Amino acid sequence: MLICTPEITELPEGMGNAANWIAAKGGGLGDISAGLIRYLHEDDRFDLHVVIPKYERQILGLGGVELRELDLLGPHLQKRGIHLVRDSAFSSSPAVYSESAAHPRVQRAQAFQRYIVNQLLDDLRPEVVHCNDWMTGLVPAAAKSRGIATLFTIHNVFTEHATPHELDRDGIDVRRFFKELYFERFPDGPFEKNWNENRVDFAASGILAADLVNTVSPTFLHELVSGACDDIAPPSLLNALRDKHERGAALGILNAPNDVIDPRKSRWATPFGIEDVMEGKQVNKRRFQERMGLVPDPDAPLFLWPNRLYGQKGVELLFQVLLGPLSKQMQVAIVANGDARTEERFGILSLGSGGRIARQPFSEELSELGKAASDFVLMPSLYEPCGLPQMEGPRFGALPVVRRTGGLKDTVFELEVEGNAGNGFVFDDYEVRALASAMERAVAFRRRPFSEREGTIRRVMRESFEKHSLAQTAKEYVAVYERLLAERDSSNDE
After folding, report:
1. Distance, CA of 343 to CA of 362 (rounded, Å)
2. Shortest CA distance to 8 belongs to which of 43, 46, 40, 38?
3. What is the spatial distance between Cα 457 and Cα 112, in angstroms, rounded to a whole number?
4. Mean pLDDT, to the nearest integer, of 410-433?
């Protein structure tokens, strides 16, 4: 079993003493990869191997080791099933998906896949390869040419392109699996013309060549194939996925938070559980308000923005809401990074807010403290493949405020206090007034009697652990791997 992932937050200790040094995170893919790998490692049915880029700056910073020590550990890690892809494209990169003139993202993706395609597939001869996102999009085609079953997981709708000539120049000879690739134009005509001018689409190639494809929530799959995301996703990705869906080879598997996301085990917040949630949140609220520079106010409805300040996340909706009168009824804490212009806009907004609005750069410490302190978590996304904060927040007693899209639709339902149902506040239209209305309902809940809020928050916390677990997510992926092996065996028998 080989898992190819461009990012990861941690590896199981059982994969070697140095495994806990190996981490390079860019988003939710790193979290779900880490959780899935941990469960598979504990399953004796799998001889598990993991291949990831060797992002030296992140790994050395986490482990406190020298580069020479890390290089010497390479053979030991391989024996434990950890394969680090070494290349200059990774050694100086400040972040997993950062763009630079010296080493653009597409070049790093090619360096990563070159090792997998040219060496690792033949060295390991895995029965199943699980590829994640566009940075592994060429691998399913290469695996298919070797008779290896593949699963391709779509975590987002990004892609990159390169001509066969450019790939060949970077050491990836695609002639062996040329027919399994997805080109920008149908590859008829002279071979040389396609070789030099017709670009390969990485994400669409992964979808086309893989035996099975999955998105990270059932609703996001439906949105992609039904046309709801036609203005968002590349047509190439949509066309390839719709073809797979029509063949019954596409499915949605809902992500889940890591098991360590638990207020009882918090490293950075004052720990609390379901029974003492109200007291615990008040203690953390005081700490968080002080850290953020917010006015100390135990009764202020406190909203946390846990995501990057990107357009996809609905950042403009929030900005417009905060310009209006509703902002005077609440506090909003933004623990996130964005482009310089967006950060500047929120910085100016916070300066004039009288301590009601604050932004700090993202850190895991401050983000976890924010969930433990806040009453609500904001996710008004334009689209959302899955999302994790709307499942993590309720574990800390912070109810989500979300737009009904993608994984948010699968995990958040309108709160009904009297009916003892629901876990958050939901809106449909991607409009400022719709978000404002949902936030008003949240504020109204915060003003309910203490006993009503306490009972509801305890219920939501309990259900958040019961309904969304990595164990269940891993079980669904294992079922997909078993399906791949069964279909391969059936094909061989024929």
Report:
1. 12
2. 38
3. 45
4. 98
Same domain, 219 and 107: yes
Alpha carbons 491 and 219: distance in angstroms, whole number: 31
Alpha carbon separation from 184 to 54, 142, 198, 239, 439 (Å, rounded):
30, 19, 6, 12, 43
User: What is the pairing mode between strands 161-162 and 200-201?
Assistant: antiparallel
Distance CA 9, CA 197 (A): 38
pLDDT digits (tens, 9 = 90+) for 229-288: 999 999 999 999 999 999 999 999 999 998 889 999 999 999 999 999 999 999 999 999
Mean pLDDT of the chain: 92
Is 309 in contact with 334 (CB distance < 8 Å)?
A: yes
- The residues with which 212 forms a beta bridge, in sequence order, are 151
Check: CB of residue 473 under 8 Å from CB of residue 33. no
pTM of the model: 0.94
DSSP characters for 302-324?
EEEE-S-B-GGGTHHHHHHHHHS
Looking at the structure, tell me whether residues 169 and 283 fall in a common domain.
Answer: no
C-alpha separations of 391 from 118, 320, 339, 374 in Å: 39, 25, 26, 14
Judgement on whether residues 478 and 366 belong to the same structural domain of the protein: no
Q: Domain of 396: which CATH number?
A: 3.40.50.2000
Range of the domain at 381: 263-467
Label residue 391 by pLDDT band (50, 70, 90).
very high
Both 241 and 278 in one domain: the answer is no
Q: How many domains does the chain have?
A: 2
Does one domain contain both 268 and 225? no
- Per-residue confidence band for 19, with pLDDT thresholds at 50, 70 and 90: low
